Amino acid sequence: QLVLTQSPSASASLGASVKLTCTLSSGHSNYAIAWHQQQPEKGPRYLMKLNSDGSHSKGDGIPDRFSGSSSGAERYLTISSLQSEDEADYYCQTWDTGIHVVFGGGTKLTVL
Amino acid sequence: EVQLVQSGAEVKKPGESLKISCKGSGYSFTNYWIVWVRQMPGKGLEWMGIIYPGDSDIRYSPSFQGQVTISADKSISTAYLQWSSLKASDTARFYCARQDSLNTPPDYWGQGTLVTVSS
User: Fold this and answer.
1) Which of B47, B50, B95 faces A44 most closely, judged by CB atoms?
2) Cα separations (Å) of A43 from A3, A8, A70, B44?
3) What is the per-residue pLDDT across A8-39, written as a single tens digit (0 to 9) for each?
4) Labelling B14: which of A9, A48, B87, B109 has CA 20 to 30 A away?
5) pLDDT tens-place string over residues B39-64
6) Which of B5, B45, B101 to mutate to test the interface with A (most CBs of A within 10 A)?
7) Which of B45, B59, B61 sits opposite A44 (nearest CB)?
8) β-bridge partners, B84
């Protein structure tokens, strides 16, 4: 069963870096994922598509502070030079056969 | 500039019908899929279904099949999500988003439509 697992919460200080993790279920370690950001009271915003080899393609206007990487079944989103507006929920998403689409439960990032 | 603009918030009673909309602009509406995503209060994102306005190919998540209807009117670059008989458990915010194939993620999202169903 295709499942994405995310930690419910994370925190880091203003100006620091943070690495969020999304873990693919067993047997799906070669799947690409996407990261989306949802700021409070706003709609989601596409950040990037992240492949199993760590290559990624970002959405329009996404700052260089956002980057992605992969290791085995884990997919990472690293945000450097944290700013207050980075405080948001971050969701990973993947898909199988195009219509079997799953989202992770989301990670709530607090910027201290 | 790519934009997906959704219709405004709705307050309905159980049993009523509803159709919400998502208007695309700034791109070729018929060449991209439109996906609908639900977010219940305080919860995460759930994929509901997807439509290709070019030929009205529609796919539903098993969880939402039979519960909602997805459609599109390509002449006005608008996709729709509708219910024939709302339940209180349909209370949620609904987002549309576009994606260029079934095997890519959505790259632009609408602002969301809040649907409240209460007696």
Assistant:
1) B95
2) 23, 19, 26, 12
3) 999 999 999 999 999 999 999 999 999 999 99
4) B109
5) 999 999 999 999 999 999 999 999 99
6) B45
7) B45
8) none
